[in-house]
Design goal:
Layout lengths: L6 E4 L5 H11 L3 E6 L13 E2 L2 E2 H7 L3 E5 L4 H12 L3 E4 L5 H5 L3 H7 L4 E6 L14 H8 L19 H24 L3 E6 H6 L7 H6 L9 H5 L3 E5 L5 E5 L3 H10 L6 H4 L8 H11 L4 H8 L6 E3 L3 H4 L3 H5 L3 E3 L5 E3 L23 H7 L4 H9 L3 E2 L2
Parallel strand pairs: 1-2, 1-6, 2-5, 6-7, 7-8
Antiparallel strand pairs: 3-4, 5-14, 9-10, 10-11, 12-13
Helix pairs in contact: 1-7
Length: 389
């Protein structure tokens, strides 16, 4: 697999860091999840459980090994430093300054490990006036302006289903780590990546930043092409109180639909800018889609070259044949469900290990690999420095 031979130390928690580290594990990296000795990653106890573990934890931590260390102890820090010497990548998501206070920050680690690629993911990055402000995804989205662009029919901000700054941070960090590893192949020297989720999500706004940059006007969702201002990039209620979506405002799709409906007279409206000028077309579509059930519209759109989909609930969505064809829902030997691997190589495809570690499950195994003797391991366990699971 593409990342076979790489070792990653994953000190991260919740979603951004664990998710990217899991992607690396799916593609062959030896990912060691470094947790505290008492509770471990909070996602071990968040949400529904299946097979004795939370679905959340399992789907961002599969294929990893868990070592539980008290990093506030001298012996625990020494153990981490020994582990770092064997690693290629370190990922952490503590608040800025925490790893330095623990004695495991980049400047300390690189003295003995100049090859290390060290990635810190935080809400606002390691510098600037907001660096120490506590924040999760929702607050970051609020400050970035992204949350203001996701509003309901009442004009109030919606709670986003997906956490955009978390996921943007994860993917940007993944990209940065891979770039640093490529460069290291030529220089032998690693690097430090300061990844702010705030920076990441702001960089993902080119489709909605136009009016601000060109006219110094804050964009309004109701006038934005992708936020509800376009008649053919919108959702509509059906006669059975379900919903459908039109997902393409290109004029060819507008023409195909309106021609099939015998309303060629409305095509010119579809060419107008998103917003109030398209209201007559949106009003027509609202009335039209109320004439049939969602299932009837699915049948009507079959074979037509128009961007359309029914709005499914999550249970329905996971049964779509495309997902099974793409192996995006996996089942382990115990019958537990897992999300699949989205990066599909023709050569050396991912071989995900669908097991997720218990807290400290691999501590002893890893300590033996590092040369610790059985008496040393037993002593450190009795002193609470490590948890052997």
């Amino acid at each position: 697999m593409k990342l076979t031979g790489l070792r990653v130390l994953d000190l991260s928690r919740f979603l951004p860091g664990p998710h990217l580290a899991m992607m690396m594990a799916d593609h062959g990296a030896d990912v060691i999840k470094v947790e505290d000795t008492k509770f471990g990653d909070a996602t071990r106890s968040i949400g529904p459980k299946e097979g004795g573990q939370t679905v959340y934890f399992r789907n961002v931590n599969r294929g990893k090994r868990s070592v539980a260390i008290d990093l506030k102890s001298d012996s625990g820090r020494l153990l981490f430093h020994k582990l770092a010497k064997t690693a290629d990548v370190i990922i952490e998501t503590f608040r800025p300054g925490v790893v330095d206070r623990l004695g495991i920050g980049y400047e300390t680690i690189k003295k003995d490990c100049p090859h290390i690629v060290y990635c810190s993911i935080s809400a606002f990055g390691q510098t600037g006036p907001y660096r120490d402000i506590p924040a999760h995804d929702l607050s970051v989205n609020g400050l970035s302006g992204v949350l203001s662009m996701s509003v309901g029919s009442d004009g109030e901000p919606n709670m986003p289903c997906l956490p955009p700054s978390d996921l943007a941070g994860s993917l940007m960090a993944f990209s940065g780590i891979l770039m640093a590893l490529i460069r290291r192949n030529n220089t032998g020297i690693g690097d430090y990546i300061d990844l702010g989720m705030y920076d990441a999500v702001v960089s993902w706004t080119p489709h909605i930043i136009g009016k601000l940059f060109s006219e110094n006007i804050a964009p309004q969702p109701s006038s934005e092409r992708t936020q509800g201002g376009s008649a053919f990039y919108n959702t509509y209620r059906t006669s059975d109180d379900r919903w459908i979506s039109l997902g393409g405002g290109e004029i060819k799709f507008v023409t195909n639909f309106l021609t099939a409906m015998g309303r060629e007279d409305l095509i010119e409206i579809g060419k107008l800018p998103a917003g109030e000028l398209q209201k007559p077309l949106k009003d027509y579509l609202k009335k039209t889609f109320l004439l049939k059930t969602q299932a009837e519209w699915v049948e009507w759109f079959e074979g037509k070259d128009i961007c359309f989909s029914p709005v499914l609930d999550m249970k329905e969505a996971m049964k779509v044949s495309q997902l099974s064809h793409r192996n995006m829902i996996l089942t382990d030997a115990a019958g537990n469900s897992h999300l699949g691997v989205p990066i599909k190589f023709k050569e050396e495809p991912a071989l995900p290990d669908l097991s997720a570690p218990e807290l400290g499950e691999h501590t002893q195994e890893i300590m033996v690999e590092l040369g610790y003797s059985d008496p040393d391991i037993s002593r450190m366990q009795s002193e609470g420095i490590v948890n052997l699971g």
